[in-house]
Amino acid sequence: MITAIEQNETMDAFNKLIPQLKIILEDDTIFGINNTEYCLKLVNDTNIPMKGKTGDKLSPGSGSYRAIHEKKVINAVVPKEVYGVPIKTIAIPISDDQGKIVGNIAIAKSLKKQEEIFELSKNLSESLNQITSAISNISAGIQESGKSSENILNNMNHTNDRTRDTDSVLEFIRNVANQTNLLGLNAAIEASRAGDAGRGFSVVAQEIRKLSSSSSQSIKKIENVIKEIQKSVATVTGDVGKVNENFQEQAAALEEITAAINEINQTAKVLENIAVKF
Known about the structure:
With 278 residues, the protein is α+β, with helices and mostly antiparallel strands. It folds into two domains: 5-110, Beta-Lactamase (2-Layer Sandwich), CATH 3.30.450; 117-277, Helix Hairpins (Orthogonal Bundle), CATH 1.10.287. It is built from five helices and five strands. It has helices at 9-25, 63-70, 80-83, 112-194, 199-277, and strands at residues 29-35, 39-43, 74-78, 87-95, 101-110. Strands 2-1-5-4-3 form a five-stranded antiparallel sheet, sandwiched between helices. Helix 4 (112-194) runs antiparallel to helix 5 (199-277). The radius of gyration is 48 Å and the shape is rod-shaped. One of its GO terms (biological process) is signal transduction.
């Protein structure tokens, strides 16, 4: 049985590389070199509260013990409940020149940073999902408002078209008034020619012309009112149209934001997977 690290070329080389490996691996790391029964050397780390020390016997079931007896590389993850931080261990069996297992080298690396990355990416992913859900609800509301605005716009356009239809009605009434006025004028002329016999008819003719005049004035008032209505309808239609355009632009912007958030969410999931596999 090997009692000194220098007795095995691989163990000796690994021992000399430990200072450089601590720099390369960066994370908090523990290094161990063992023979088949006990620890020949243990390089602890202050951030990993393991109580092992050089000279301790190998514990049955440990990665180092299994690597020697199962004659294979043993990878294991120790949950943070054991040492306060999650740890990943790897134990590699070491053979002599005849191929006999004489011990193993072991590395235990803290997964605290990876766990933090995992938690951050998980929280980020959950937050992004909530934001995406909220934006989807807002987008649905905007789209619904846009549909309502579009319906209002269509109704306003229909109302505007109907008010234009009154132009022909007013024109017809104006023609009737003109014809009535002409009729009253002709009646007055005929009454004048008839002398005393046409005096009663003359009164009727005057009333007809008064009616024609009153109708003309009413038509002008109605025409002015309708023009004001048309003007108001046109203004409201234009405003509703602008609102509808704004709704469409906002909906498009929200779609772009949702797409960007989904992309970030995918990145967060990738980070989460990397943290799990690391």
